[in-house]
Amino acid sequence: MEATRELYWNIGHGATVLVPMYVVTFAALGLLAYYGYQRLAIYRQGKPVNRTDNRAERVKMLLQNVLLQSRVLKVKAPGFAHGFFFWSFAILFVGTALVALQADGTDLLFHVRFLTGSFYKIFSLALDLAGLAATLMLAGFAVRRYLVRPAGLESSRDDAIMHGLLFAILITGFLIEGARMAATELVHQPELAYWSPVGLLVANLLSGLGDQGLRSLHAGLWWLHFALVAGFICSIPFTKFRHIFTTSANYFLAPLGPKGALVTLDMEGDAESFGAAKLGDLTWKDIFDTDACTKCKRCQDRCPAHGTDKPLSPMKVIDQVGEIARGQAEDNLVETLGKDAVWSCTTCRACQEICPAAVEHVNKVVDVRRNLVLMEGEFPGEEVTTAMGNVEVNGNPLGLAFASRGDWAKDLPVTLMSDCADVDILYFVGCYASFDKRNIKVATAFVKLCAAAGIKVGILGKEEKCCGEPMRKMGNEYLYQTLAAENIAMIKEYGVKKVVTACPHCFNTLAKDYRDLGFDVETEHYTTFLNRLLKEGSLKVAPGAFDCTYHDSCYLGRYNDTYEAPRELVQAAGGTIREMDRSQAESFCCGAGGGRIMAEEKLGSRISVKRSQMASATGAGMLVSNCPFCLTMFEDGIKGAELEGLLVPRDIAEILIEKVVS
Question: 445-459 pLDDT, tens per residue?
Answer without folding.
Answer: 999 999 999 999 999
